[in-house]
Amino acid sequence: MTRISRDRPFLALIALLVAAALTMGMLGGTPFELSRYLTNAIGQLAAFAVLALSLDLIWGYLGILSLGHGLFFAIGGYAMGMYLLKHSFAVTGTVPDFLQFMGWKEFPFYWAGFDFFPYAVAVAVLVTLLIAGVFGYVSFRSRVSGVYFAIITQALVYVAMLLMFRNDTGFGGNNGMTGFAVIFGWPMGTSATITALAVVSLLVLAGVLVGCRWLVGSRFGALMLATRDDETRLRTLGYETLRLKLAVWCLSAVIAMIAGMLYVPQVGIINPRLLAPELSLEIAVWVAIGGRGHLVGAVIGALLVNAVKFWLSSAAPDVWPFILSGLIVLVVLVFPNGLVDLARLRVARPMGPKRLSAEIGEAR
Amino acid sequence: MKSWRLPLLLVSVLLLATPAVAEPLDRTSLIAALCGGAGQMGEGASTLIATAVSGSAEERAWAAPLARAVLDRDLACDTSGAVLVQSGVDAVSRTPREAGEKARKPLASLKNRATFELADAALALRSAPDIAARAAALKTLERRPANVPEGLLEVAAASEPDAGLREQIDTLAQTAALNSSDPAARIRALSRVADTPSRRALTKVSALTKDPAYTANAEFRQAVDAATARIERGIAIGDVLATLYNGLSFASILFMAAIGLAIIFGLMGVINLAQGELIMIGAYVTWLVQQGLRYAAPSLLDWYLIIAIPVAFLVTAAIGIAIEAALLRHLYKRPLMSLLATWAVSLFLINLVRVIFGTQNMQFETPFYVSGGVPVIGDFIFTWNRMFAIGFAVVTLALTWAIVRKTPLGLNIRAVTQNRDMAACIGIPTRRVDMMAFGLGSGLAGLAGLALSPIYSVNPQMGQNFIIDSFMVVVLGGVGTIAGTVVAALGIGQINVLIEPLWGAVAAKVIVLLMIIAFLQWRPEGLFAVKGRRK
């Protein structure tokens, strides 16, 4: 704990998140409350930050780049969407759109029980662990790593997207699920619900951040860094890296799933676009821009990029892709460790020897 | 209901089978017959049909309007013959005259009406001046192949100037012969139909198993069964060939998309996420060349695909070299960062093209050498646009192989791929080799875009459809080997095409991915990875 107490950026970020959550919670219902749009945006940003943390854990601290984290994000999102639809159906009796589209009389059998929230969470966790576990096990066992792993994960999320685009899968198909009316008995779309969701998201973000900080600061975290930097040597020393990698990979997948569960009630829709390879790539971009291998950096990257995106996608939608690509190039060339470099006012020279040694683990 | 149809059919077949009138047509008595009672009108109609089959050109031209006139009640009969009311001419002499006071318009009975329709279509098929009218007449005849007068289609086919329509007439002739009254003719027709197997032919032949002759006549039954077996065999062969051909063309596209990626990946471990966009730019350059030719040299327009080859290669190679020099040069030791950087480039290129050209699909001319195809056997058509893609891929493969194996640049590329540090030690300018190789890989992507433009829709998003498939090819094939890329492209292409008809395109993608993951358990470095080259 002494090390954490000296980590000022981390403490500042936690304090900021908790303070923001408290302020929003206290101001809710008073004349000083934030606009609904802003509150909602803050909540979504928090969900994205959790997603970025999940990728930073596996990429920044274990050196495994996944370009398929959108898959786990979407699993959480779909589980939440299924809960919301069944819940809304039970409360208001409105038939979900996707049943109407398909002309079905009732929910497919695998929707049973989803009106019970703990069941939905349990199913989401199990599915995430199953997919992440099996995929991670076969990949890490055959030592698929680096660029190969990135490509396979991207193919995985792409295939999942193709599957979910089909209307006969019973998950809403290409239209996705929408029309959520109530959440935990409260009507969706009211200021109180929006504020509550944003506050919960911020608190979850703070909690995940503390958890991750504790993990990477522990002995286990030291092993993670050692695996990233020289897995062969670690194995030679007798450490079982397969189990370690698998454990972190599954943990990361579950965190991404939680982010999905936070995200869907705030946007009010879930569709296969969440599984597009572009989104999964963008998560890596947030982490890279913020600072890979720094939990604070990942959060800042996700918040910054998405805040700019929120602003620009309404102000100048055509310009946004150019700005994003410019940002990526800038960060990759000038700040090889992301904006964390900027904070330390240490602009790296391209291809400096120090950077080479810092990146050597990645080259494998 | 059914019971009256058979006698009717027999009667009409008998009527139609009257021996062709060799003697000149008696025009006056024909008109009299048309103005007579139901029986006489029926005879008149069969005379008209006989004229359509064996009359002289002049007689046919004279008879052509008559059947239609009866059907439209346009024929007015009076004491001195008949008048075609619409054109106001005498039916026999075709000189202008008015119809008499007590003119009567004959009404074809229900039975005669069908015969007159047949006569009208037969005459139109023989003597209508424009092709559309002849095609329409053929459509009418096709509705009742059993009633088509014998000999009509043969003579019509012989005099038909249009090849397409002639083929249709021949097909109908076969069908008609299948239903003819002469068992020997039917058996002959069966073997002719079986010569060109197709699903349509199979439906026609298998319909004959319900024919009364099938149970009554053993010889006929044998002929039908033999023809069915032959057609089924032909269709099966055709289906196998079609699957192979489609798989081959898909594989050639995959190969084109992946070979540049494989060279770049093998050389520097960089996955170029902008490769799909370089393909897209290659297609757009092809489009620009086409537009340029349209204005500058319209006579060369058909050859734009050929003329665009060097242009597409050079433009995309230049873009690739620019990307390499500006960005990737600084990221060689950081392959995952170069992945993100090339993704930024791809994002930039997609949006640049979207801003400049818009999001709609580009319109391409279809030159004669990529349009149409040759029907081979069964339902397999050897289409030229796919053949173009296959041929293009083969030529590209040969050239790439020659460059990598036979030129000093290729020698350097192979040296750097195998051991970058050692190559640098013996004086190979690795940075320049990287640049050249990146240019080569990018140029190959541009060529892929060109080869795709006659087959796929060209829009800013098109690159994304190939990038994941081409990754799979590279991962499966192993880094940077041409042979691996070829084998992996062939394998993935064929598997995709084999699975798609069974379970659909999505299942094909899922299965291919699962197979690749399973395969990597066995060979993590891909098919053709050389041991000890990369750590």
Summarize the SSE layout with pairings.
The complex is a heterodimer of chains A (364) and B (535).
Chain A: H1 2-6, H2 8-27, H3 36-59, H4 69-92, H5 97-102, H6 117-141, H7 146-165, E1 177-178, E2 182-183, E3 186-187, H8 191-217, H9 219-229, H10 231-236, H11 241-267, E4 269-270, H12 277-290, H13 295-315, H14 320-334, H15 339-343, H16 353-363
Antiparallel strand pairs in A: 1-4, 2-3
Helix pairs in contact in A: 2-8, 3-8, 3-11, 3-12, 3-13, 4-6, 4-11, 6-11, 8-9, 8-11, 12-13
Chain B: H1 5-16, H2 27-34, H3 38-54, H4 57-71, E1 75-78, E2 81-84, E3 89-90, H5 110-127, H6 131-143, H7 152-159, H8 163-178, H9 183-195, H10 199-207, H11 212-216, H12 218-268, H13 275-296, H14 304-326, H15 335-357, E4 373-377, E5 380-383, H16 384-406, H17 408-418, H18 420-425, H19 430-452, H20 464-477, H21 482-503, H22 505-522
Helix pairs in contact in B: 2-3, 3-4, 3-5, 4-5, 5-6, 6-8, 7-8, 8-9, 9-12, 10-12, 12-16, 12-19, 12-20, 12-21, 13-14, 13-15, 13-19, 14-19, 16-17, 16-19, 17-19, 20-21, 21-22
GO molecular function (chain A): branched-chain amino acid transmembrane transporter activity
Subcellular location (chain A): Cell membrane
Pfam families (chain A): BPD_transp_2
